[in-house]
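Hi all, long-time lurker, first post. I run a small reading group and we've been trying to get comfortable going from sequence to structure in the token notation. Rather than ask abstract questions, I figured I'd post a concrete chain and ask someone more experienced to write out its structure so we can walk through it together at our next meeting. Sequence below, copied exactly:
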Amino acid sequence: MLHAHIFSEPAPAPTDFHLLPPLTPADYLRICRKASGKSVDQVAEVIEPRHRRRSAVAALIRDLETPGTTANHVTLLDPLHGAFRFSSDVYFQLMTRPPERHPIICRQCGCDRHHRCHHEEIGDCDWTLPGLCSRCADGERC
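-- Answer (accepted) --
Happy to help. Here is the structure in token form:
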């Protein structure tokens, strides 16, 4: 007869942050861009209003959102700040730190503990689940 040990630790919840796959810099940029509601082409249009150079900008954005590709210098990311919200610091932390030292980032909107979603009436978001901020957990858009 087999008996379960009643004093064992409960299984970790599937939302435990450390059980989530590590977020890459490319994932982070894609999450932040999508949270802004803009397509790659719309971001390229904000950055480069002249049509003939826009396709090169869109290609660069697609490259930066490709798994395994990273920006080699912060100035490559600077134009993106005018198109959608993200943190260059967080991007480079994801690039240079081991996964166990990555910042906690919402997998839906891209906010983190130092760059939270803000709503005029409610205030800043908080963390209700690892990998998901309170605004996204409630189904609200940041």
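A couple of things your group might point at:
The CA atoms of residues 93 and 101 lie 8 Å apart.
Confidence is low (pLDDT under 50) at residues 1-15.
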